Model the fold of this input.
Amino acid sequence: MGILDLRNMDDEYAAAEAITFEEVPNGRYQCRIIKAEPGITKTTSNPMIKWTLVVLAGECKNRKVFKNMVFTPNSLGLVKNDLQALKFTGKISQLESALPRYINQAVQIRRSQNGTDNQGRPQFNTYFEELLNIPLTDGVDYAPPPDDRDYTPPSGDDVRFP
Done:
């Protein structure tokens, strides 16, 4: 036998139904930003920010929304709209160092379907519309830092903008 002894789960596994994940549909949602990670696109090597958000209310409550903000000369107008909605006023070169201040902030987003991928799955655009003043409350899942060791969730003034 290997490291995993899962024999006691055979019956539960056989009875379990596979979970399907549907996209959060078109609409406006209040979300909490739980991750904002810099990265590079796989195909074009363009710089990007990978945002992960959690819907705070409604029938999509607790569902995740993913947003890739890709930086190209053609996308800078859309990027600027999003960053202005987040009240970012610095130079674009300062954005990466500003990302931590957005973690656990609430934001209103707008989702709109813009077609389907080559497998027929819907594709969505997600736009930041407004940074919201919604305080953290008990029951919110806090985003761990990248290494998630010795993590204490921020509270009070720790999550406010300067």
Remarks:
- The first strand starts at residue 27 and ends at 40.
- The chain has three helices and five strands.
- Strands lie at 27-40, 47-55, 64-70, 106-116, 122-132.
